[in-house]
Amino acid sequence: GAGVSQSPRYKVAKRGQDVALRCDPISGHVSLFWYQQALGQGPEFLTYFQNEAQLDKSGLPSDRFFAERPEGSVSTLKIQRTQQEDSAVYLCASSSPGLAGSKQYFGPGTRLTVT
Amino acid sequence: RKEVEQDPGPFNVPEGATVAFNCTYSNSASQSFFWYRQDCRKEPKLLMSVYSSGNEDGRFTAQLNRASQYISLLIRDSKLSDSATYLCVVNQGNFGNEKLTFGTGTRLTIIP
Hints:
The structure holds two protein chains of two kinds. By secondary structure, chain A is mainly beta. In chain A, 0% of the residues lie in helices and 49% in strands. Chain A has strands at residues 5-7, 10-13, 19-24, 31-37, 44-50, 53-56, 65-68, 75-79, 88-95, 104-106, 110-114. In chain B, the strands form two sheets. In chain B, strands 2, 4, 5, 9, 10 and 11 form a six-stranded mixed beta sheet that branches. In chain B, strands 1-3-8-7-6 form a five-stranded antiparallel beta sheet, with no helix packed on it. Chain B is globular, with a radius of gyration of 14 Å. The interface between A and B is medium-sized, with 27 and 25 residues.
């Protein structure tokens, strides 16, 4: 069965460009998460959806970051006017519906480099 | 203070040795606890959940001390394939609040 997939796997953007990162969760998984992992650090939470509802966006570092999941499956993380400090790996994870503390399955990530 | 703190290492350990990692967390409302493993340039993968009673999976033993807000992972008879970064992870475990909080990770290298 297919796991979580993300695209593109690598993205190089010039400072000031907008980027869009895509996540395809495991089919049937209601919960979807975005994390940011800087070099040498653990992943840090960005935002979380249950179906199409964005329940928590407390981790988004600025208003340049925006995430959506309009039909409750595929999600897009958009970063406007990228800055060098946005360079990181962006990880998407999904989990089984409604189970608190349930296992999150991670995608391979998108490595964003802002030059 | 970070919510989850780990010694970043690196730990360089000879093959066959026993190695232990520790982690502390600050949010007493945390309900669920995990160890994840992350290989270089790969995504994190769940190694094991951690329970107060302690749990074992082959060569790996995890322990939780809620009173001290402390989590441990023990690896016995270490193998070369155990080389990775080990991430201590907690969440509050409430429905609708399932985000994971990660430590910075402890880097382990097993030396032949």
